[in-house]
Design goal:
Elements lengths: L1 E9 L4 H11 L4 E8 L5 E9 L2 H13 L3 E6 L5 E12 L2 H13 L3 E5 L3 E8 L1 H15 E6 L3 E4 L7
Antiparallel strand pairs: 1-3, 1-4, 2-3, 5-7, 5-8, 5-9, 6-7
Helix pairs in contact: 3-4
């Protein structure tokens, strides 16, 4: 089962290394990792996506909570949460497919952020399903390159990790 884990950490040298080491040391792959400072200076938020059964992920969560620089760990999987990912897609924009690319971009509320004589670079944000559907429609038109930000997530409603 896929788990989305949100972690508040003290923004210090080596924190990311210790967290990723904890995952790899227990045989867990990190499918997605996103880290950025919060509105509080010196505090960062990590969003980690991994796969594993509930018991193993609970064990990882307990181990994370033991690390010195960890403020709070929350497995969002069992909660209601909003998640998004940003991707940039570089496309072959030959004259015969330009109109189709622009139609798909419009349908998915994406936007073209760079244009050259034979390429379009498209930006889109959304959840996993939207991103997957977008890429499936563009694939036959000639995707050159895809860059993904990784998932970010936040609890719905009044609940807060801080």
């Amino acid at each position: 089962m896929q788990h989305t884990i949100s972690i508040l950490v003290v923004n210090q040298f080596g924190v990311l290394s210790r967290i990723s080491g904890l995952f790899s040391g227990r045989g867990f792959n990190i499918e997605s990792l996103n880290v950025a400072e919060t509105s509080e200076p010196g505090i960062s938020r990590m969003t980690i996506v991994t796969r594993g059964d509930d018991k193993k992920v609970e064990q990882i969560t307990k181990q994370l909570n033991k690390l010195v620089d960890i403020i709070k760990v929350t497995d969002l999987t069992e909660e209601h949460f909003v998640d998004r990912e940003l991707i940039l897609v570089k496309m072959n924009a030959e004259p015969r497919v330009r109109e189709e690319i622009l139609r798909i971009v419009d349908i998915f509320r994406a936007k073209v952020v760079d244009v050259s004589s034979d390429n379009y670079t498209v930006e889109i944000t959304g959840d996993e399903g939207k991103i997957k559907g977008f890429l499936e429609l563009l694939k036959p038109l000639g995707i050159k390159e895809v860059v993904r930000s990784g998932r970010i997530a936040i609890s719905r409603g009044i609940k807060s990790i801080s």
